[in-house]
Amino acid sequence: MNAAAAWRDRIDGDGRIPAGLKQLVADVWEMFFNAGAVAGVSASAFNDAPPIWQELNFLACVDGTVRKVDQWTPILRASWMPDNYLYHRGLAIDRNGVRTGNTQPVLRGDWFNFTKVPEVGSDTAYGPCRGIGLHERAGNPWEITPVVPADPGANPPFRRFCSNA
Predict the structure, then answer these.
(1) In terms of domains, do 43 and 83 share one?
(2) Rounded-to-integer distance, Cα 104 and Cα 85, Å
(3) Which domain covers residue 23, as residue numbers?
(4) Which of these, 32, 29, 37, lies nearest to 10 by C-alpha position?
(5) CA separation for the pair 5, 7 (Å, rounded)
(6) Which of 17, 48, 51, 80 could form a disulfide with 110 if both were Cys (CB 3.0 to 4.6 A apart)?
(7) Both 78 and 42 in a single domain?
(8) Quick one: 91 and 24 in the same domain?
(9) Side-chain half-sphere exposure of 137, counting CA atoms within 13 A
(10) pLDDT, tens digit, for every residue of 31-61?
(11) For residues 125 and 49, what is the distance between their CA atoms, to the nearest angstrom?
């Protein structure tokens, strides 16, 4: 049993605690700490949320610009959420390092792909990273799957940079 569940049970079992406070404690546990019996069905979104990641690959040049490390790898790769913005020296740039002159995100968040149920070969936030191109936002550097780990609060082991997928 984890510390949050022990705290909830201790409050619930204390006859001196008002029912309203017990309900609040149960709600807090349910909202933030419940690992659930089935991933994606009964778990707290904080225990079962898809991974969010960003990866920056660039060369910082003596002329004050930033450039891509090669012709294939964009400066920014990121997960399906959230919106991503790139600035260098206070000026907006695109994923090639070119100044844009606007305040628009270089990658827009995609809630649909971020939250959809994984299927083999589908574009979701789960599983290994994909190569650069059409599906470059799918997967994650830790190869996290939708199965809730025993301790979702632990840092997962690093697998690889997504640009090396």
Answers:
(1) no
(2) 7
(3) 3-47
(4) 29
(5) 5
(6) 80
(7) no
(8) no
(9) 23
(10) 888 877 765 577 787 777 788 999 999 999 9
(11) 10
| 82 and 140 assigned to the same domain | yes
Alpha carbon distance 118, 11 (integer Å): 38
Neighbour count for residue 95 (Cβ, 10 Å)? 18
CA distances from 13 to 4, 10, 30 (A): 14, 5, 17
Q: Are residues 90 and 20 in the same domain?
A: no
Q: What is the mean pLDDT of residues 73-87?
A: 94
80 and 145, same structural domain? Answer: yes
Segments of the chain assigned E as strands: 54-56, 59-60, 66-67, 76-78, 87-88, 91-92
The verdict on 82 and 30 lying in the same domain is no
CB 115 within 8 A of CB 146: no
**How many structural domains is the chain composed of?**
2
Length of the chain: 165
67 and 41 in one domain?
no
CA distance 9 to 25: 9
Which tens digit of pLDDT belongs to each residue from 105-115? 999 999 988 88
pTM for the model: 0.71
